[in-house]
Amino acid sequence: MRRLSLTNKKVRGVGRRLRALHKWSDSFAGWFPGELDPKERYCNWKIPVLSGLVEGKQAKQVILAECAQELINACAHLMAAKSQSAGTYRVTCSIALPDMFSSEVCIYMDEDYYQGHVKEGTYEFGSITCLREKSLANDWALKLPPGVEELGVYLNFSSIEDDWSLLGERWFFGEVL
Predict the structure, then answer these.
(1) What is the spatial order of strands in the sheet that 126-130 belongs to?
(2) Of 46, 115, 151, 160, which is the most exposed, with the fewest CB atoms less than 10 Å away?
């Protein structure tokens, strides 16, 4: 279950929560959504965990890596089940750092929308830079199933006028190149 953690208390039931996440990723095996509207840009499934499990002072590296692996596994299951009629759609998972609670498995039906998330360049509110010298899979000892590729970008966006900023890394796995 996806929930916000409103305290800094130690997360209880970590093993149970990770087993539930594993069951969630396995639920994608042999299944691909049949009714995707090509007019929509994408559909997604956010990581179904308690936010304190993956963010804040209670989040542990080994748990973050296990959660990232389950997102990659879910993505690989969707890729394997993808039908010929969905040939132009991209199946990915996005691991957001430092705000891993916003990580997700995603199917992009619009190529331009996908490129807007990963294409290196300078934009109105900031920039996207590719992380060529780094690999989250290597750093966290993640196992990439056959056909799953990795692409990392650094996001640096902000608006003083609207008082927001988006800084951090996004790691895309799946059909990313």
Answers:
(1) 42-46, 104-108, 90-97, 164-174, 149-159, 126-130, 121-123
(2) 160
Token readout for 147 is 């056909």
**Per-residue pLDDT tens for 129-151?**
999 999 999 999 999 999 999 99
The two tokens of residue 155 are: 């996001």
Provide the pLDDT for residue 96: 97
How far apart CA 15 and CA 18 sit, in angstroms, is: 5
Domains held by the chain: number: 1
Structural domain including 167 reads 14-174
Tell whether 7 is covered by a domain.
Answer: no
Judged by DSSP in three states, 16 sits in helix
36-80: pLDDT as tens digits: 887 899 999 999 999 999 998 889 999 999 999 999 999 999 999
| Structural domain includes residue 87 | yes
* C-beta of residue 137 within 8 angstroms of C-beta of residue 176: no
